[in-house]
Structure formats: C-alpha cells, structure tokens
Amino acid sequence: QTVRISELTTFGVRYNVKEKPFDNVKLRQAFQTAFDGKTFVDKVLSIGKPALSWIPPGMPGYNAELGKEWAFNPTKAKQLLTDAGFADPKTVPPIKLQFADQGNNKLFAQFIQAQLKDNIAVAIDLDPMEPKSFSTLVNAKKHQWAWFGWGADYPDPDNWLPELWGTKGGNNKTNYSSAQFDEIAAKAAAELDEAKRLKLWDDAQKIVIAD
To answer: Is residue 148 within 8 Å of 13, Cβ to Cβ?
Structure first.
C-alpha cells in the first residue's frame, strides 16, 4: 500500500544568474519549457506532482494558475532559444549540470540532459560531485547549474520565498536579486491581514517564476 500526502518539499534546478549563459532570462525560460515535468514525475520520480511554481501543490499560497505559460512546450522552447540569441543550438556556450553524486541524482540529471537534447538540441555535460564538494561549490555560489531540493520548515510562503529568492536570503544560492521582489516580500512579512498577506506573497512569487 502507498499512502500519498503533501510534503513540504520542492525539487528543481538552481541557475546561477550571474554566470553565463544563465544571465539570459530567455535561455532560462527556454530550458524550462523544454522540460517535461509530468513524465519526470511519473516515470523517473514515480511519486509526487509536477509543479510550475515554487510553492508546490497542497501548500498554503499555492496558485494553480501560476507558471502555466512555462509548461512543457518544445515549440515554444525553440522560439525562446532563438529569442535568447541562439537560433543555432550549437552556439549555446558549454553548460555543466552539477549535482551531488548520491542517491538517484545521476538518474535525474540524465533525464534533464536527454530532455534538452531531444527537445531543443542543446547538449549539456553532467558534473557529478562528491556531496561535500558540491555543497561547498553551491554555498560559494560558484556553480553554473545545479540540481537541488528545498524542504520548508513550515507550510507558509514566508518559508518558501524570501530565504531562497530574497537578495539577502540566507539560502539564496542563485545570485538572484530583484528590488521589486524584496519590496513586496518586506510588505508581506509585515502584513497582519491574512488575505492581503497571501496576495502579496503571490505577487512576489509571480516575479520569481517570470524570471
């Protein structure tokens, strides 16, 4: 018997937005739309739900409409790749997907690698690392592109968003910085009205997902 419950966990990839070529938002969007999250969940993870937003299904603050424009769409992905300045996929600079060489991480990375090759003809290299070395690299924000997961401490947007995406967030390993996000997050953290607070966090998450 399998009992399925919602957990405080999302898996994804960390783009280092200060490292080329991931300083290019159109390229990040192309990679997202080239990835078949449903097949990944169904065939590789074998458990869970695909999520197009950072706050996952089943959690307070989840917005089922958020991120739909970045759902799996190879045709759109190819156009976004062209918009990013890479009409010829072979001109995309060398990319390494880094991950801790443990558990099923290599299998996950191989799926991502195959998705990009099959759907937008972009070849990437896999860079499995000793777990401690991988953590050191990411903590120093020296990675290029890394597989990771986030387990929230409590079920609230306050623990899903500012720590990871705020300019001064303690777990912001992507070098991401948005003055607009920071401003809205500060307002949300100080808001006592629950409806207004969740609306502010939703607005903040929309900025992250678009970026």
So the answer is: yes
Q: Tell whether the torsion through CA atoms of 3, 65, 116 and 126 is positive or negative.
A: negative
Residues 6+ apart with CB under 8 A from 183: none
The pair of structure tokens assigned to 120 is: 């937008």
* Parallel, antiparallel or unpaired: strands 145-151 and 9-15: antiparallel
Contact 37, 50 (CB under 8 A): yes
Residue 8's identity, in one-letter code, is L
Q: CA-CA-CA-CA torsion for 35, 36, 39, 41, nearest 10 degrees?
A: 60
Q: What is the number of H-type helices and E-type strands within the chain?
A: 9, 4
Q: Could you tell me if 107 and 97 are in contact, meaning their C-beta atoms sit under 8 angstroms apart?
A: no
53-96 pLDDT, tens digit per residue, is 999 888 889 999 999 999 999 999 999 999 999 999 999 999 99
**Interstrand relation of 125-129 and 9-15 (parallel, antiparallel or unpaired):** unpaired
Token pair 């937005």: residue: 17
